[in-house]
Design goal:
ten-stranded parallel beta sheet
């Protein structure tokens, strides 16, 4: 995965959402997910630090993305939480904030939102952002109670 000189374990693609497929609802997965179609719901990797989401140029996600490793070349309408590595390819279009540890952004990629880097000292606050309480929401990087 992304050549930084270290050997890394990479997840194989276990699940494919084809170009003629639309999913209405949240997707919870382990391993690798490749999306050519449309997901109208949140996409969450379940307890897998090597999980990867690959969103192809024709792919679209309308919801929040919470996956350690993300490669976007399609459209995301929602926030992205990438605790590992985030790649924004040339055709990537993101309307939402991006919370990341490491980002790689190609010329032509577009982000309409904030880019917020997670640093090692922010783990507890960052985890709170990923799982706000039922009666709260995340606003401007802060959990707000209702």
């Amino acid at each position: 995965m992304w050549g930084n000189g270290k050997k890394q374990k990479t997840a194989k693609i276990d699940t494919l959402v084809g170009g003629n497929t639309e999913i209405n609802g949240d997707v919870l997965f382990k391993g690798g997910l490749h999306v050519d179609g449309v997901i109208k719901g949140n996409v969450v990797a379940e307890n897998d630090e090597f999980a990867i989401l690959i969103l192809a140029e024709s792919g679209r996600i309308e919801g929040e993305v919470q996956v350690p490793n993300v490669s976007v070349n399609g459209t995301v309408l929602g926030d992205i939480y990438a605790m590992g590595h985030l790649e924004l390819a040339e055709k990537a279009r993101v309307s939402g904030s991006i919370y990341y540890t490491l980002v790689e952004m190609a010329s032509g990629a577009e982000v309409n939102g904030q880019l917020i880097q997670k640093t090692p000292g922010q783990h507890s606050n960052y985890e709170m952002m990923l799982t706000p309480a039922n009666d709260s929401e995340v606003v401007d990087n802060t959990v707000k109670k209702h």
